[in-house]
């Protein structure tokens, strides 16, 4: 099995596979491990068989995929949408599991190729908080930024973050006073945090500051989604700035995702170098 044109960009993987059965009665070929966004492994396996029916050779090919979470102590659940134009598959979904191989296609050709596009996402936790997003009557806690504040519900905050849960459920001063100051954070970033907690939506700008807030409050799902969206918009022009940001703030998920993107060729090192030198 030949693999080429592999491109990884954040939580998306694209590749082209070619298979030829050289009149082998039975053979199994497995692709390398493709680590997606530093959190899960995707693989392709092809089983090829050939028999002679007395008149001609008959080929039977089975194509399998598997999708496994890297860290079993990771509390998040991941899903992929698997597509292949040449196999006629569109957004077939798989949830990260124990390594089961899933049959996705079979054919009877001696030689064939197929494309693969895999998009990974986090399975959102069930939420009934959307109806409370615009509520003002029952809000009982305030997040205060540098230029303003937003009001939220204690129970919703506690459900979203283990850090906030400890704060709100303990004897901390903030719990008694009904507010917490978030230094270095704008009201816009706090509003983006609220929008994600209640509605599971992300902004198109300001993702870096939202990522820092998610990391501070140990909101792993929001942290990963910010990383995925930032890397999906990665270019040679912003790659150096994002690398510097990730290193400065020790955001390991973002740093590794950018390096994977560069290593796969989705962003060219030469283009990054040219942009960096022009900026000097």
TrEMBL record:
InterPro entries: BTB/POZ_dom, SKP1/BTB/POZ_sf
Pfam families from the UniProt entry: BTB
SMART domains (UniProt xref): BTB
The BTB domain, residue ranges: 139-198
Database matches in Gene3D superfamilies: Potassium Channel Kv1.1, Chain A
Organism superkingdom: Eukaryota
PANTHER family: SPECKLE-TYPE POZ PROTEIN
Protein's name according to its UniProt entry: BTB domain-containing protein
Organism, scientific name: Chilo suppressalis (Asiatic rice borer moth)
């Amino acid at each position: 099995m030949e693999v080429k044109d592999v491109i990884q960009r954040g939580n998306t993987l694209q590749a082209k596979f070619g298979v030829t059965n050289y009149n082998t009665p039975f053979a199994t070929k497995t692709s390398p491990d493709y680590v997606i966004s530093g959190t899960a492994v995707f693989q392709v396996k092809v089983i090829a068989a050939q028999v002679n029916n007395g008149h001609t050779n008959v080929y039977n090919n089975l194509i399998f995929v598997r999708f496994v979470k890297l860290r079993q102590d990771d509390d998040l659940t991941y899903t992929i949408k698997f597509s292949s134009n040449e196999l006629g598959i569109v957004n077939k979904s798989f949830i990260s599991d124990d390594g089961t191989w899933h049959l996705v296609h079979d054919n009877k050709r001696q030689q064939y190729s197929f494309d693969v596009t895999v998009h990974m996402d986090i399975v959102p936790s069930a939420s009934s908080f959307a109806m409370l997003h615009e509520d003002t009557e029952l809000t009982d806690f305030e997040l205060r930024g540098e230029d303003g504040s937003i009001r939220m519900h204690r129970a919703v905050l506690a459900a979203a973050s283990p850090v906030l849960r400890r704060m709100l459920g303990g004897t901390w001063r903030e719990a008694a006073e009904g507010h917490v100051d978030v230094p270095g954070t704008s009201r816009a970033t706090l509003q983006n945090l609220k929008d994600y907690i209640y509605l599971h939506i992300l902004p198109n700008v300001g993702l870096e500051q939202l990522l820092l807030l998610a990391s501070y409050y140990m909101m792993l799902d929001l942290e990963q989604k910010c990383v995925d969206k930032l890397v999906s918009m990665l270019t040679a022009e912003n790659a150096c700035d994002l690398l510097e940001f990730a290193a400065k703030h020790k955001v390991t998920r973002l740093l590794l995702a950018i390096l994977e993107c560069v290593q796969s060729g989705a962003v060219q090192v030469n283009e990054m170098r040219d942009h960096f030198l022009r900026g000097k």
